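[Meeting: bench + compute handoff]

Bench side (C.D.) handed over the final construct sequence. Compute side (W.E.) agreed to return the predicted structure before the next meeting so the bench team could plan truncations. Sequence as handed over:
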Amino acid sequence: MDNTPRLFIKAGLIYAVVGAVPGITMAIDPSLSYPLRFIHIHLNLLGFMAMMVSGVAYHVLPRFSARTLPWPAGMKYQFILQNTGLLGMVVMQGFADWRDGGIAQAMFILFAVLAGISFLIMFYNLYFVLSPANEEPRPTKITGDMKVGTVIDQFPKALDVFLASGFQAFANPTVRQTFAKVITIDKACEKHGVDVGEFLEKLNQQIFSEDASSHPEGTQTAGKEVERGKICEADTRVGSLIVTYPTTKKVFEAHYGEGCFSCPGQVYETVEQTASMHNVDLELILSEINREIENELNAS
């Protein structure tokens, strides 16, 4: 999780605790309800709830929609303005009679405006993340600054070139609809150690050549299946492995969690790919899987 969404969530939790104090105080002494009600409500509404919603939304929505925030720096400005506005209003409510006008009322209005601006920033960022992206015109040449997902969507045959060049993760439909939507070809090539110039030449030739076949030479699918009696290797598909050796599923659950198997990607991804995505040592998980395979074969 990025630092700013984490700050929103932490601040929200702090406001939840602090906001409970005037609530408890009013329960003990109802005569204090008038001065404390405003503080209690705003600490919980603008503090706890708004901060928590902002933090979670900033972390989750860009990932689910596969779109970046239109103004990422706005998160920090929102955090500063929202806290300044909220705390300023609470202080003016608690220690000054701002309703009689004068400087106190002007200060209260200023803090309220700051809080309002912070919500406009949140609206701007999150609304446009959820809005459908404008359809991009079909390019006549593929360049390195293009998003992988956009290229594959516009030119389905490009997927074969990516797979043939070692980008096996893109065989997973979930990856193509999330990660591939935000990474450029340049970055993908850099990450996989692929020469971007040669890859772009191959990609453009495959897509735009009238004589290009439906599958480029050397096309391969991600990973391989495992047969009963054989051991698991780094390029073994997780889905095939679990079908052949059902007891190995508990090894993945121990390292990745049970939720991993609700993802359709496990049918396509290899053990090596999943270990990399979950930051698990490949040799460790392979040894545990093969130990489980050996136990299953001996028991049969």
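W.E. noted at the follow-up: Residues 210-221 have pLDDT under 50 and may be disordered. C.D. will use this when planning the next construct.
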